[in-house]
Amino acid sequence: MALLLTRKDVETLLPMSEAMAAVELAFREHALGNVLMPLRTSIRPPAYGGVNLGMPAYIGGEVDALGLKVVSVYGENPVKHGLPTVIATVLLNDPRTGALLAVMDGTWLTAMRTGAASGVATKYLARTDARVATVLGAGVQARTQLMAICEARKLQKVYVYDIDSERSRAFAIEMAEKLGLEIHPTTDLRTAIEAADILAAASNAHDPIFPGEWIRPGAHINGVGSHAPKARELDSTTISRSLLVVDQKMACLAEAGDIIIPIQEGAMTEAHIHGELGQVITGQVAGRTSAEQITLFKSVGLAMQDVSTAARIYALAQKQGVGQQLPL
């Protein structure tokens, strides 16, 4: 028997604080050498413009969890089919026997664990007195990015920018009520960038959204929107100005256009990557060293985030009696 957990179950069980705790633990175990995680495999059905990814991981140490996420990313889904761009399912296995423990919706889990990673990066890299955040994009991921930033820092003001100004307004109304924050939708991108102590780039852009010269000294940036070699939200100036911390160096060098393209241009080398987030968490690599330093966390998303979060959800479901038993 395996436990079936729906999206509603996952939303009920997983506050951002729990997601951040699970993700931080996964990054810590990764830095300690306790994670087995091959690069994700992908299939792109040629006629449909989407990609299907398989993401397995085993996390040892304190987590001791085994699982697989299957996730599809289809950019035309919202318009053509009324479906989310990202659709995912997570299988959680017993690492001792390989038996299936749970099948759970991974769509909300993916949004939460991605936001959570940025929240953890903000916790370790942003200035402690950071009070103003700017969010680029107004979709699902932008929402969990802001939720996580609010867990890490006590914000006073938020700007949101989206090429669709109506989406920005809807985002501001919804998230202001949810988080009790002053949120301003804006069409003035430069002012929003220059004001930001913390900047979350969570868009669908394939080309840089703004020039890196606009970033104020001391800002922290979370870049999560692009995860393909030929796409980037952040320009080479942004990358070169920043202390660059990544979720995993190998994955970013294979998938992150924000890093790959500046290297190809000759604007930087691989040596510009300061370290991985797990190394900052464990103290193996230093984080921010001054109030004026610009820090940047670049994430492409890792299977260990999904598996650690799924294990946390499963434990909470057992404790609270949530879910349905699924005979196989």
Could you please say which CATH topology of the largest domain applies here? Rossmann fold
Helix content: 25-40%
What overall geometry do the principal axes of the alpha carbons give?
Answer: globular
Mean pLDDT: 96
What structural class do the secondary elements suggest? alpha/beta
Beta content: 15-25%
User: What is the H-and-E element order?
Assistant: EHHEEEEHEEHEHEHEHEEHEHHEHEHE
How far from one another are the termini? Answer: 6 Å
Largest sheet: 8 strands, mixed
- What's the number of domains? 2
From the alpha carbons, calculate the radius of gyration and give it in angstroms. 19 Å
Q: How does CATH name the architecture of the largest domain?
A: 3-Layer(aba) Sandwich
Q: Strand tally, please? A: 16
Name the poorly predicted regions.
Answer: none
Tell me the name of the CATH homologous superfamily of the largest domain. Answer: NAD(P)-binding Rossmann-like Domain
**Number of continuous helical runs:** 12
CATH class division of the largest domain: Alpha Beta
How is this structure best described in words?
This protein has helices at 7-13, 16-31, 77-80, 107-125, 140-152, 165-179, 189-195, 236-241, 249-255, 257-265, 277-282, 303-320, and strands at residues 2-5, 35-36, 41-43, 50-59, 65-74, 86-93, 100-105, 132-136, 157-161, 182-185, 198-201, 220-223, 243-246, 273-276, 295-298, 324-326. It has 328 residues and is α/β, with parallel strands linked by helices. The protein has 2 domains: 2-110 and 304-326, ornithine cyclodeaminase, domain 1, CATH 3.30.1780; 118-300, NAD(P)-binding Rossmann-like Domain (Rossmann fold, 3-Layer(aba) Sandwich). The strands form 2 sheets. Strands 1, 2, 3, 4, 5, 6, 7 and 16 form an 8-stranded mixed β-sheet that branches. Strands 10-9-8-11-12-15-13-14 form an 8-stranded parallel β-sheet, with helices on both faces. Helix 2 packs across helix 4, helix 2 (16-31) packs across helix 12 (303-320) and helix 4 packs across helix 12. The termini are close together. The mean pLDDT is 96.
